[in-house]
Amino acid sequence: MLDLMKTAGDILSALFDERFIKKAQSYSKFFDSWKDITAKNGIAAAADHSRIKDLDRGILQIEMDHPGWKQILQTKQSKLLNDFRIRFPEMEISAISLILGKSEPETEPQAPTASATAETAEAAVVAEPVEATQEPTKEPISQSAVTGLDAIKDEEFKETLKRLGQSIAVGERNKNL
Predict the structure, then answer these.
(1) What does pLDDT average to in each consecutive run of 10 residues of the chain (177 residues)?
(2) pTM of this prediction?
(3) Residue 134: which domain range?
(4) Rounded Cα–Cα distance for residues 148 and 142 (Å)
(5) Same domain, 131 and 95
(6) DSSP, residue by residue, 47-74
(7) Of 171, 165, 167, 173, which is closest to residue 142 (Cα–Cα)?
């Protein structure tokens, strides 16, 4: 059996040169690094809801399952990019593109919780998208205008988002006076 494995190894070595194998190992480490890099930046929970999708012409594409995670990742985007550049200089990463992926029909994506996003909770407001043909409203943002609050199970996080929405509404009213 050992001779057979050695023969298979010899065949593989003949097919793939050492340079190709090192490059493949580098890509493997690169794709496996997402969990470590998010943890280093204080957003470890984001790794469970996002992944490295592709690296195309120096642009690192990160896909996530919920708009809240996209907003959280945006707050750390430059730090993530810097960490990838330092850890993988040979990849020549020039930018990070954050992409909202399609959710699986049998499982619903989870919104971030306060415990997972303590330092970025204020940045994680999910607003109703506005179509290009709609005129922006001058009315203050109401509780019903913020989507997803009812779906958030963490009451502390929900209250933080409510206060942030109210603060924005007060600022809009004062700006219009």
Answers:
(1) 59 68 83 94 94 94 94 95 94 94 56 50 37 42 50 73 72 63
(2) 0.51
(3) 125-177
(4) 13
(5) no
(6) GGSEEEEEEETTEEEEEESSHHHHHHHH
(7) 165
